Structures are given as C-alpha cells and as structure tokens.
Amino acid sequence: MGKKEKPAPVKLIVGFIFKEESILTRAKAILERRFGKIDFESRALDFNYTNYYEKELGFGLKRKFVSFATLIQPEALPKIKVFTVKTEKKLSFKQNRLINIDPGYLNLSRLILASTKDFSHRIYLDKSIYAEITLIFKDKTFQALEWTYPDYRTAEYIEIFHKIREAYFKQVNLECALPT
Known about the structure:
alpha+beta; nine-stranded antiparallel β-sheet; 29% strand; globular
C-alpha cells in the first residue's frame, strides 16, 4: 500500500498578456500584495502566436512572466486562479479585460498551468478550475506535449522556465539543508 505524503511546495509563476505597461504594473502590485515578492521577471516578449486576445486586449500585445519568492502548495492553484480572474475583472474597462493573467506552478519535473476551460487533457481541481501539464522536464530540458501552446514551445519561453527552475532548485535545496 502506498504511503500518503504531502507534496513538496512549488514555485508560483504568472504569465501576463497585455498592451499597456501601466496595467501590467498595477497587476503585479496586486499580486505581490497577495503572494509576496516577485523574485524573477522576464523581459517583455512580443505576443503574436494567436489573435485570440486581440479583440479584447488590442493589437501589439506583449507577454511577460514572473515568479514569486514564496513557494506554494500545489493545492492552492484553484484559489490563485480565481483571484487572478477577479484581478483581471478589477482592471477591466467597460467589461473588456486589459490584461490576461495566467497562473501556474513549476517544480523540478513539470510546468502546470491553471485554466477555467475544460478540455480532454485537463484535470478538474476545484472552484471550476482545471490543471494542465504544459511542459515536462526530461533529458535536461523542458519538453512540449501535443497540446502545449505554440508560444510555450519556443526557445525564449523554455529559457525563462529554465531560469525559474534553477531558482526553485536553489530554494528547495536550501530549505532541505536548513536544520529543523
């Protein structure tokens, strides 16, 4: 019989899709008040992989990723996604979002994203939120799966996730090394 163990804490990451830097600044401030200090921030990348967000957010969109210094428990992901949806609404104008906020988490073996949309490769968690394994870490790098979004397959994104994974690795090894 298997032994039940509490999962290890994971690294909270958030991807933003936005047009105006001022909205991104406001969103990051709200998330930092809730989840603590941001310990990594990518440069702004052009987001031109789909036109899905253009009607609502406009043209010339950017993508940026952040991660947070405070580790979370994986089961917190549904509440975090609900909070980010509320934050999107709070920052909306005339019922149109001005920013898309996608939370997820990373551990040493995978990148998980939260979604409000069900699909065959997503698993229901709680609070109408689903989880998707977006990337797996295999052969010393992140590997895409058949459903991985095109942008998450790019070398630029993989490099970002490697940097976040390295920070996470240092965090969990330091925590394990501390005397109890």
